[in-house]
Amino acid sequence: MNDMSPDSYTTADGRTIGGKIMEVKNITLRFGGVVAIKDISFDIREGEIRAIIGPNGAGKSSMLNVINGFYHPQEGEILFRGEKRGPMKPYQIAQQGIARTFQNIALFKGMSTLDNIMTGRFTHMKAPVWKQAIWRGEAEREEIENREVVEKIIDFLEIQAIRKTPVGRLPYGLQKRVELGRALAAEPKLLLLDEPMAGMNVEEKEDMSRFILDVNDEFGTTIALIEHDMGVVMDISDRVVVLDYGKKIGDGTPDEVRANPEVIDAYLGVSHD
Amino acid sequence: MFYREAGDYKTSYVDDSQTFPIALDRRIYMAAAVLAFLVVPFVMTDYLVNAIMMPFLIFAIAALGLNILTGYCGQVSLGTGGFMAVGAYSTYKLMTAFPDLNIFFIVILSGIITAGVGVLFGLPSLRIKGFYLAVATLAAQFFLVWMFNKVGWFYNYSASGQISAPERTVLGQAVTGANAAPWVSYLFCLVFVFALAWLTRNLTRGRIGRSWMAIRDMDIAAEIIGVNPLRTKLSAFAISSFYIGISGSLFFAVYLGAAEVGEAFGIQKSFLVLFMIIIGGLGSIFGSFAGAAFMVLLPVILKLFFADFIGWPTDLVAHLNFIIVGGLIVFFLIVEPHGLAALWRTIKEKLRLWPFPH
Ligand SMILES: Nc1ncnc2c1ncn2[C@@H]1O[C@H](COP(=O)(O)OP(=O)(O)OP(=O)(O)O)[C@@H](O)[C@H]1O
Ligand SMILES: [Mg+2]
């Protein structure tokens, strides 16, 4: 699939998939003796839902950590919107328009749902500190404008009732949803989701799948997600990358990946030589 | 039902983010302002102004400042006394170097200088956290006190090593020096208290306040939404130190009149202000005031009751003060980290629903 032409095309369900928004080239990441990622390359195209799958410890989360700047790979390069990315801090990468959620929820526990999602608007707010201190004028106007955006996200995720609840008190499934809301609030160009449905029951998974599809469809957000539930992955993703022991063993449409013998081996636990 | 929200509907986001979301709160605040500005100066005795009101106001400013750093941004500091000293010595140097400069501006300038020093000592916070940062700020505390003691330039090489505030006036009334009337000093401090409390409220409800809390609650998540950790922590150090510098400036120039650094700004002051925000409530403006009031009032009340009324020896009463404060710190740290402010909130919730429990 990597040799697919860079031109845009239209999916069966009528969404437009554009050129490469991100390209990961020959990334190798080592922790001391452990090689977490071995010479991996793949791309993510504008408007698509790209899944990253693989057994535990395959290097999926590490890959997201490389993309959003927490880990610095020893080898390889990353191109974002066609440009090679120099060494950058995670907050700078966020400012470029890449948002994410974490495998283990990382919400701001002491803050309400509303404040958590408002914090996601950080990069869209520009009033200097002294104007925020005075409040009246630019700061207040900006707060209200951004609050309106956040309220739309709250409506979209159907979490109106918990707007003012401290997130620490919310059940797990709702916390995952708030975390998605916080990432959406940034209006990212690329949204990375690390196991958004882990630990959820069937109903919650269905809700979450619907939100992900709607985000992609309505806002045109490009999404890369890690997920263990194969049913979900095959249902919602356009293309799938398969990692195993830090290596890429498959890349293609869900059907192609499902038919790939190496992938079948990895998932059935056939021993590697 | 004493405390009502019903009929107090919010129809826009402007209303919803107002300083006091419930009309009653707003009225209580206005009443406090009227009382503090227009009534207290005329009815309070000089003793009460000096023993209670002035220390309360001045330490409320320090508590607001430390609460920004520790309560909102999660960076523990034991350097409050040292930063108050920076404010005090800046004021002294500015007062003696620029005799014509209005004391009002001198206080603000002292705050700005302290903000700069705060940023300098805040730099390690990018690398170190929690206990280690606390130790680093403790080092700042001892270093600053040592420096103000040793370097003669800071106290203009006076023989006593003390600094003392010459007389300065605002609108024709002496604010500092021996001729300052207590009610004038009180009003001068009060203006700063109201202005700074208002600024705190604005800062903490907006973008920068949320970025502080984000760093406090989960720094890696703060980073992935675009918050620069170093800048955010340093902004908290700067603004916090600005408040603490103003507090130290007022403590020296307006309240004490003369000061010796070790005695006026020693490590006890750092702990005093830290206890204020723990007992009052971390991350709460109301808590900063409640904690300052509590820590100022407790020894006065204990002394009035046990020493003056019952006749216990004063050192015994002082020990009782330590025991109570120590017990409360343990209690609040374990049971209610949000302090008196949280207790007050719980009472409000109960009153709001009373007499129906649900
Ligand atoms: N900070 C780190 N220090 C050392 N080793 C690490 C670090 N982060 C990840 N690793 C190692 O890298 C490998 C890949 O881990 P990673 O978390 O990326 O796996 P994963 O595919 O996300 O697995 P899971 O499905 O369990 O989440 C593992 O062997 C892990 O122990
Ligand atoms: Mg993982």
UniProtKB/TrEMBL annotation, chain A:
Domain of life: Bacteria
Keyword Hydrolase on entry: yes
ABC transporter domain: residues covered: 22-270
Keywords carried by this UniProt record: ATP-binding, Hydrolase, Nucleotide-binding, Transport
Matches recorded under PROSITE patterns: ABC_TRANSPORTER_2
Xref: SUPFAM superfamilies: P-loop containing nucleoside triphosphate hydrolases
GO CC annotation terms, alphabetical: plasma membrane
InterPro entries per record: AAA+_ATPase (IPR003593), ABC_AA/LPS_Transport (IPR051120), ABC_transporter-like_ATP-bd (IPR003439), BCA_ABC_TP_C (IPR032823), P-loop_NTPase (IPR027417)
GO molecular function: ATP binding; ATP hydrolysis activity
Gene3D superfamilies for this protein: P-loop containing nucleotide triphosphate hydrolases
EC number(s) reported in the record: 3.6.3.25
Class of this enzyme: hydrolase
Pfam entry (one): BCA_ABC_TP_C
Record-given protein name: Sulfate/thiosulfate import ATP-binding protein CysA
Designated gene of the protein: cysA
UniProtKB/TrEMBL annotation, chain B:
Predominant location category: membrane
Gene Ontology CC terms, in alphabetical order: plasma membrane
Gene Ontology molecular function terms on file: branched-chain amino acid transmembrane transporter activity
This protein's UniProt keywords: Cell membrane, Membrane, Transmembrane, Transmembrane helix
Membrane protein topology class: Multi-pass membrane protein
Localisation per UniProt entry: Cell membrane
Pfam families cross-referenced by the UniProt entry: BPD_transp_2 (PF02653)
CDD domains linked to this entry: TM_PBP1_LivM_like
Domain of life per record: Bacteria
Regions that span the bilayer: 28-49, 56-89, 101-123, 130-148, 180-199, 236-259, 271-302, 322-344
Keyword Lipid metabolism: no
The protein's name in its UniProt record: High-affinity branched-chain amino acid transport system permease protein LivH
Biological classification of the source: Bacteria, Pseudomonadati, Pseudomonadota, Alphaproteobacteria, Rhodobacterales
